[in-house]
Amino acid sequence: MKLKAENISFKYPSAKDYILKDINLELDNKKIIGLIGDSGSGKSTLCKILSGHIQKYEGEVKFNDEKLPNKGFKPVQLIYQHPEKVMNPKWKMDKVLSESWDVDDATLSEFGIQKSWLTRFPQELSGGELQRFSVLRAVNPKTQFLIADEMTTMLDAITQVQILDSVIKIVKQRDMGFLLVSHDMDLVDTICDDKIYFKDINGI
Amino acid sequence: MEKLLDVENVSISFIQYTKGLNQRDLKVITDLTLDISEGEILAVLGSSGSGKSLLAHAIFGILPENANLNGKIKFKGKELSQKDKEEIRGKDIVLVPQSVNFLDPLMKISDQAIGHTESDSEKAEKKLKQREIFEHYNLGPEVDDMYPFQLSGGMARRVLVSTALLSDPKLVVADEPTPGLDEKTVEETLNHFKHMKEDGIGVLLITHDIHAALDVADRIGIFYSGYVIEIAETKDFSGDGENLLHPYTKALYKALPANGFELTKGHQPLHGEIPEGCPYYDRCEMAFDRCKKERPQLISLGNKKVRCFKYEEGEINEA
């Protein structure tokens, strides 16, 4: 499995300067890679391009030598920092979850989700609990590559370990690719096999 | 050092409508106790969404109308009524809010920093002082005429901090001052608090960022499911965490990537489902029988405080 970015450049239509310039990146499912960079440097923009959420950019993203599909399920899934922003606030959690896939009980308990949470609205759960749901949504059986963009930044240290532990288990089990984007050097050193500094690959 | 703020057994609950006209009383903070002296930084550390910001709102008397506040909030030994809070807020006690969203988007920076004035001479005097403090925080004269949207993240933070210091406060309450900032700006913001401490100001830092708390605070209050479960000294967060008292605090310390990334199961009970006994009972490895039914009180051990039966009668048994 190969996720490849070739000469990616990006600027907002109204802006003069490029945020991303000539980025080349090759990722696979053999190693967990950590991407490190300051906030505001454009990491999240790159993540959105890699997962197919931004489609107007220069260069090419190829997944297994093919272009990312622009409709239907995206094989590269992105998990954001703020789970409450990816969920419909008027849906209860079981609907939020089944929008993606039917999760079995074993997986629910592996992610530490209580059955009673399924009948609640997003605002009735804490950030840590919501992030478990957000991760579970992203690990749909059709997902092949997972990008975690500051996924645990808002969480306490204990919840951070719990969520990453579950994610890495499922990534290994299903042989998925995993890119961890973070500003926390200790975290990247603990979890990843290799790291990339964003400023080294961004040619601006 | 004189004691500035005493928060004693504060609880905050909200009246909510459940179905039709049925109401329920949802307890968000059950028992919050802490104190701050002059020239001290105390951090309150809790996960996001745990309700710790309500503490700041309670101190300033700006809780919403359906909130119910119990317990005592004392400033320099005197219990504060709602009227007292309105009197001293913005003078002796000031708030550094989370973001520029708390500024008026249609008002120039210098005008809102100075605030309401009675006369032209008062305005001129305050303007002079504002300029002086802004200058001290590296904000040039051009900032005075800017609008909030024109400020960068770091500048906005400096504006909020220097505005707070305009009234020569005794106590500064900072609510989540670090998220969304890059490393350099975080460091700069934390340095502002260190300077305040050197000037004898007490700082209450409300945060979910353990690194920020460890960096600047003298003591750290750990907030768990609506309780303060421990007030530890920052220096105890070292080695294997052997000087930390509460099992949750120990687990939190060991879960940091630099300290082992250790996994602890379970989750914090949500508001409204907190068990009758110790809030940490179902995750605790050394729970006694009584922990299930009885709720431990916050007990003092020297300079520290802990809410755990293990340390009752002042005995510190090694785990």
Labels describing this entry:
heterodimer; A: 204 residues; alpha/beta; Rossmann fold; five-stranded parallel beta sheet; four-stranded antiparallel beta sheet; 24% strand; globular; B: 319 residues; eight-stranded mixed beta sheet; 10 helices; 28% helix; 25% strand
Describe the 3D structure.
The complex is a heterodimer of chains A (204) and B (319). Chain A has helices spanning 43-50, 93-98, 105-110, 127-138, 157-174, 185-191, 198-201, and strands at residues 2-10, 20-28, 33-36, 58-63, 66-67, 76-79, 145-149, 177-182, 194-197. Chain A is α/β, with parallel strands linked by helices and 204 residues long. Chain A has a five-stranded parallel beta sheet with strand order 6-7-8-3-9, sandwiched between helices. A four-stranded antiparallel beta sheet of chain A has the order 2-1-4-5, with helices on one face. In chain A, helix 4 (127-138) packs parallel to helix 5. The mean pLDDT of chain A is 92. Chain B is α/β, with parallel strands linked by helices. Helix content of chain B is 28%, strand content 25%. In chain B, the strands form two sheets. Chain B has an eight-stranded mixed beta sheet, with helices on both faces. In chain B, strands 2-1-4-5 form a four-stranded antiparallel beta sheet, with helices on one face. The two termini of chain B are 34 Å apart. Chain A binds chain B through residues 38-40, 112, 114, 124-129, 153-162, 165, 183-184, 186-187, 189-191, and chain B through 46-50, 153, 179-184, 208, 210, 251-253, 255-258, 261-268, 270.
Please outline the helices and strands.
The complex is a heterodimer of chains A (204) and B (319).
Chain A: E1 2-10, E2 20-28, E3 33-36, H1 43-50, E4 58-63, E5 66-67, E6 76-79, H2 93-98, H3 105-110, H4 127-138, E7 145-149, H5 157-174, E8 177-182, H6 185-191, E9 194-197, H7 198-201
Parallel strand pairs in A: 3-8, 3-9, 6-7, 7-8
Antiparallel strand pairs in A: 1-2, 1-4, 4-5
Helix pairs in contact in A: 4-5
Chain B: E1 3-17, E2 23-37, E3 41-45, H1 53-60, E4 67-75, E5 78-79, H2 82-88, E6 93-96, H3 109-114, H4 120-136, H5 141-144, H6 153-165, E7 171-175, H7 183-198, E8 202-207, H8 210-216, E9 219-224, E10 227-233, H9 247-254, H10 290-293, E11 299-301, E12 304-306
Parallel strand pairs in B: 3-8, 3-9, 6-7, 7-8
Antiparallel strand pairs in B: 1-2, 1-4, 4-5, 9-10, 10-12, 11-12
